[in-house]
Amino acid sequence: MPTLVAYALTSVLFTVSYFFTILATVLPNWLLFSTPNPFRVTTNYGLFKKCRGECRVFPSSDENDCDEKNFCEEWEGAAAAMIFAAIIGGLVWLNLVNALVSGRAGRARAWKGITVLLLLHALLQFTAVFLIAHLYTTSNRFYFGTKYDISFIFTNISASFSVVLAIILLMNGVLSHPEYVVIY
Q: Per its UniProt record, what Gene3D superfamilies does this chain match (predicted)?
């Protein structure tokens, strides 16, 4: 059974990971395109906005963003995956807090559910990363010079962190000795 210290450390580390998830979801910085000098123009692509000086909704059928086959569906799928990852991350955080304030019996059972939620959190984030990476490599919209930006990196870090935390918590739950032994 994981100890109170293990849950506290997991809570602190997951809070950092969850902060990265929220930042990656709201910042319009998944892909970055910059034109060469002397007329430098920067375009940021986010899950919900495209910013070139001013921001607008992205993707938008009014702006002909959905002309390519399945572009809008995949982009919106990535956005939905990140929203669900943020919701699952909130559930992970609540379960970690619950494990911290509950007694021994609650901590003995909590690691199983938290491990599953951490893996689901990471899976949803990796799904968003995969969809954006697929569009980045196959879409004609992203010209030579487009590169991954900070939100893409934050999502990879957060998802990797969640997997590592899930493995550590699973190993701690499976391999640690029970805090007490029932006497019959």
A: 1.20.140.150
List pLDDT tens digits, range 60-106: 888 777 888 888 899 999 999 999 999 999 999 999 999 888 887 77
Strands 42-45 and 54-57: unpaired
Contacts of 109 (CB under 8 A, 6+ apart): none
Amino acid at 27: L
Beta partners for residue 45, in sequence order: 31, 50
Residue pLDDT, tens place only, 107-129: 788 889 999 999 999 999 999 99
What are the chain's domains? Answer: 4-175 (1.20.140.150)
Give the chain's length: 184
Look at strands 54-57 and 147-148 and give their pairing: unpaired
Max CA separation in the chain (angstroms): 81
Predicted TM-score of the model (pTM): 0.88
